[in-house]
Structure formats: C-alpha cells, structure tokens
Amino acid sequence: MSAESWVIERLGHHGDGVAEGPVFAPMTLPGEVVTGRLEGQRLCDVRIETPSETRVRPPCRHFKSCGGCAVQHASDDFVAEWKQGIVEAALKAQGIEASYLPMHVSPAQSRRRATISARRTKKGAMAGFHARASDAIIDIPDCKLLHPDLLRGTALAAELAEVAGSRKGEISIACTVTAAGLDVDLRGAKPLDGPLRAALGDVARRQKLARLSHEGDVVCQELPPAQSFGRAQVVPPPGAFLQATREGEAALVADVRAALAGAGKVVDLFAGCGTFSFPLAEAAQVHAVEGARDMIDALQAGWRNVQGLRTMTAEVRDLFRDPLRAEELREYDGVCLDPPRAGAEAQVRELAQSDVARIAYVSCSPASFARDARHLLAAGYEMGPVRVVDQFRWSSHVELVTSFVRPEA
User: Is 290 labeled as ligand-binding?
Assistant: First the structure.
C-alpha cells in the first residue's frame, strides 16, 4: 500500500471515518481503503479505492455538499449497529453491561423542527443548511430529512433574511411544524423596531405562519401553534425544546409509560412543556418540575384546557442547583427523568439515596447517561433493557430510554 493510502478502522462519534494516526476521512466506512490530501489530521479530496460492502447510494442528492447528514452513505443496518455501539461503548466505559430492545428509527422526511440558516446576498438571499465543514450556506430543495411542511421554511428563511438580515452576518430561523402552520423564531436579525415589526408581520400573514417571533418576542400570532402531548394541546414558548419527530416522541412516551406502569404518583423532572407529563397523567398523579418559567406556564395553560386526566401540579426549579432531595422524593413511587445533554448528576445522587421504586430515564447523551446510570446501579437499582431511539436520522446523534427499578419494589 502506498504512503498516500489509508485503511479506515472505525467511525468516530461525529460520523467521520478514522484511520491510524488518527486521520479523519469524511464519508468513509470501516474497512475501506482510501486516498486523499492530508491537511493536519483531516483527509481532503477523498477517493474510495476499495469500498465497503455496507456502502450505499445516498438517498439525498445534497449529501456530498450538505453538512446536515453524516452517514447517508451507509446501509441502515450499519447505521443502527454503529449507533447502538456508541451507547454500548459509553456504558462499558462505566463498567456497565446492558441488554437492548429493538431500535426505533424515525422515517425519512419526518423531522418537524430544524434551524435554517440564511444570509442576504447582492441579488437577494440564500437559505438552507451549512455546507460540510464550512460556514457557506447551500440550498436544500430536495432534503430527505425534513418534513415536507418544514421544507418550505427554506424559502421563508430567504424572505426573512431579505427583510431582517444584514449583509454582515447570517440569521437563524428556528422552524417547527404545527397543525396551524409553521411556528418560527428569528434569531440574529436586526434589532426589532416599529418598521421591522410591521414588515415581519406582513411576511407572517402572507406566508400563513401560525406564529412569528423575533428572539423569543412574539411579533405575530395568527393561530395558536399548539402541540399534542397525550390528550392535551399545549402552545410552547417560541423556540422551546420539542422532540425532533412525532414517531420518535411516540416511541419514547410508550417506553416511559411502560416503565412507570402501576405508579400512582409520579414526578416528571426536566418536564419541559409536558411531553411525558400529560401521557403519564392519564394513569397517575403527576408533579412536573422544569427550570424554565415559560415552559411551566405553557404546561399549566394546557392542563387548564384538558379533561379526563389525573391531578397535575407544576413547579419552576433549577434541578442542577436545587435537585429534589431524597426526603422530598419519598411521596413519589415513580420518576420520569429527561435531562439535557449534561445529564442529571446532582438529581441522580439524590435519587440514589431515595426509596423511589421505579425510574424512567430518557437521554440524548450516552456519556452523561452512563455516568448517571453508574450512580443508580451502585445504589442498588437494576437497569432494564435499553432502547436506542434514532430521531436524528443519518446524523451522529443518539437518544435512548430505559428503566431503573429497586428490586424490593
């Protein structure tokens, strides 16, 4: 083999192939022999000399240039094995072995929220995703990732850039699909004054948006941009967290409900706007705890307008600085835990000292989950099988859900 050739040994956590060195080669797969031009540790102008049997034709014509997806060149079976392997490696690093349920993979064109970038140009504006390893913006008219209703957000983003952007930098448009139309939050735009507010309102009405906000400040709301959580209709604050796909959310909710079946009183920690709180309230009393006041306000407004659920209460509380103490947890026989990427170490240490019978843990970070799981296992909890949930199809992002049960429960 010549000095200009490399053998790809594995995929890194971001989806690049990794050869000895390490040398990082985008859009390559384990076992492939590749050549290219080495810049630092990154291989450019990669040529596949010996392709992998798991290599497939990318379903999207934008894949080679767009930075939105990382592994469209790999078979679905390979991607599933790779993503489960990321979870396995994180757990093994903490000395944990686990069993696994079948993976859930959201279908193509199912992403209901995304952030679209846009920039004014001399002739108008450009909108889409960033190019691979670049801050350049490319158009994505045939994206296979976004829901069709969300894909129209690219043309909207270009129009918003012309109205509210500057030639000095790009703006971001956080778009979410709702039954009433797109819910849009504009970020990085010119300061909101009277003329800009009027111009943005004109765009919102012409484009039939449900809601248009500027840095979280609602400019125009034609219809409530509600989301369905169980039986409830909730209007999240602009830019609020939402599970990426309806299918992925349904898979997570089903496993959380199964993990907490039989619990009469549940506390939902990092509750957001009620993704899990409302489905759980169909069978249990629920206390929802979330650090963001606007999310709790949205949850409570949804609760006031829904019938047929058990009692639900809510609390604004920073669970990183002020977790529920072990003595406070005594009144609950079930806990739902869905923290951000940092995990919930402070809260988990309190759970480890509690006598809560069962915990449903949803995670978007295998590494922080594995750290938290180690604390719970050391305290005597037993971990159930893990389900990997792939809502961010063709990316390196991994989510999971599992349960922890005290043996005496």
Answer: yes
